[in-house]
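For the sake of transparency, this paper describes our internal protein records without simplification. The remainder of this section carries one protein's record, kept here as part of the documentation:
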Amino acid sequence: MIVLTYVCLVVLAIASVGLIATVLLQSGKSAGLSGSIAGASEQLFGSKKAKGMDALLSKLSIACAVAFLVSSLGLCFFTNTF
């Protein structure tokens, strides 16, 4: 059980650093009030797709967030601190 705790800690540390890095590397989406109103409607209906590096960073941030959530729950489960 102690090995699984250390595995969860390592995964948690890697996921947290990865999540911070991917969020900081993404480009900003807002350009004032008019840009946010027009951009939100385009993004809602799917006409504005992320391409290139933004799409990759978006997928990586989702993967890091899922890994962070699962490792946090695993760490709570294996250390019995619910």
About this structure: The chain has a mean pLDDT of 81. The chain is about 80% helix and 0% strand. Helices lie at 2-25, 32-45, 53-79. The CA atoms of residues 27 and 54 lie 7 Å apart.
